[in-house]
Amino acid sequence: MTALRLEAWGQAPVLRQVPVPVPGAEGVLLRVTAAGMCHSDLHVMDASAGQLPMEPPFTLGHEVAGTVESVGELVDAAWIGRPVVVHGVWGCGRCRRCLNGRGNYCLDRGAAIGNGLGRDGGLADFMAVPSTRFLVPADGIDPVQAAPLTDAALTAFHAIRPHLDGLAAGAPVLVVGAGGLGHFAVQLLAAHGVSPVVVDPKPEARDLASRLGASRTVADLAELAAGDVRFDLVLDFVGAQPTMDAAIALVAIGGDLVVVGGAGGVLSVGKTLGLPQGWSVSAPFWGPREDLEAVVDLARAGRLTAHTQTFALSDVLAAYDRLRAGEIAGRAVVVP
Ligand code: NAD
Ligand code: ZN
Ligand code: ZN
Fold it and tell me: How confident is the model at residue 170 (pLDDT cuts 50, 70, 90)?
């Protein structure tokens, strides 16, 4: 089969012919039906040795939809043929976070995060999943729609969910970056009666955000800094130094900054004598299985839609170049 392999830090990934994996006794083999391309993959490709808690070689692709092709000897054969999505953040299942339903914050994951991030992922014709714990049934959802739910939508949902109850309808909310994750965030907020302000330098991303429920779009955070609106919730889906510096200054008294993007920005916060501030800052990571089930249900009910551009696996490297160049609106999805 063909797989997109990251073979060493500092080298571009390559399409290789590799053997079809054999699932373990508690695992399954998936025929991949769609795999999303995340901006995090670019951060992984750019990383140097020791920066990330994982080691090459592995197959990229951590947003995976597939059909169960075969199962390990301890797995119920009723799984065979089922369309599923993969909950890709492979927790140990035993630590206090995993036992508390927070497997995305597993304390004992070893030198890998999950599929496509230290373990072989879904930018391939087939993929092995080590346990049915990591499968969520996705019957009734087009695979191209389903794949981006597993990270882009799940991460946006997990970032927003703790804040929803505290947000009055019409509350001022800011979304920085309306790409793969951000375009889901706009939909999730709009469904809650909140029309966010969206910042994105790309006209196509701003157009998409407007169609999905943004109240206003701007190209540059500086435009907002110059105004006097401050936000109850600021979601930074870029996480670069300039966006984080601007974002923290745009949080209203008693508001929250949620940093989701991983572009290397570092935040310096403190309490000053200009009290009161009452801010909170959080850095959520991906999401628990329960949240993936919730976004799958929303998609099945037609309340969450991935805006996608599809590519063949043979074109995946050109597609990543386009993602890097800012030429993708919504999510790029590979259909092997
Ligand atoms: P993407 O490339 O699809 O979207 C990023 C968007 O941000 C693009 O529309 C781009 O035009 C816009 N943008 C770039 N610079 C900007 C700026 N200065 N101000 C406003 N907008 C700007 O990326 P994505 O796949 O949505 O991922 C976004 C970030 O989130 C990446 O850093 C990725 O690594 C990270 N991520 C984090 C998690 C997590 O668990 N915390 C999960 C997935 C992705
Ligand atoms: Zn991702
Ligand atoms: Zn664990």
Answer: confident
